[in-house]
Predict the 3D structure of the following.
Amino acid sequence: MRLHDTRHGCASLLFAASAAPRVVMEILGHPQIAVTMNVTT
C-alpha cells in the first residue's frame, strides 16, 4: 500500500460519512474543488 492510497481511502471515507466536498478539499490540501471531485469519483 502506498501513502497515496491512504489519502484516497481517507477521501472515500469522508464522502461516505457525508462530509462536504469543501471540507474534504481542505483536509486533502487540494487547490481546487474540481481536483477533489475528480480524484474521489
